[in-house]
Amino acid sequence: xxxxxxxxxxxxxxxxxxxxxxxxxxxxxxxxxxxxxxxxxxxxxxxxxxxxxxxxxxxxxxxxxxxxxxxxxxxxxxxxxxxxxxxxxxxxxxxxxxxxxxxxxxxxxxxxxxxxxxxxxxxxxxxxxxxxxxxxxxxxxxxxxxxxxxxxxxxxxxxxxxxxxxxxxxxxxxxxxxxxx
Length: 181
Ligand code: ZN
Known about the structure:
mainly beta; 9-stranded antiparallel sheet; 11 strands; binds zinc ion
């Protein structure tokens, strides 16, 4: 759960980073930035700020902001009916992104939170800088960690069904619950 009072500052901080990346957004878009805590109630450690530009039944374009050392938890995009699952390309716009995919364990620069050792299974480390991009196949597990100054990235994907994403951590609740304070 996330407190209402945490949302606006997180949206502002994310908007500043998006603009620092040279990406033009309207003031009215700032309040539409989704602040997701993935139900772990520790936004600075686990979360993501997501501005959705396009979300149709067939494709989606978003800007994802990770604050410094913030983790977007491990997940995959599952098959849904005849659809093999969301195919997604991310492209770095600003900062440094540590990205973890399936494969040999090469974690060196980032680290897995102690209490979550068992639910982060993708341990092949990749470091992405602005201008670099990567495409995830449907079903492939991945997670992200923002660098020292955080990261701003574009996400281009086929059909968006984020609430159907699979997460390795059973404590995750993908639909953000807001508590009024
Ligand atoms: Zn993903």
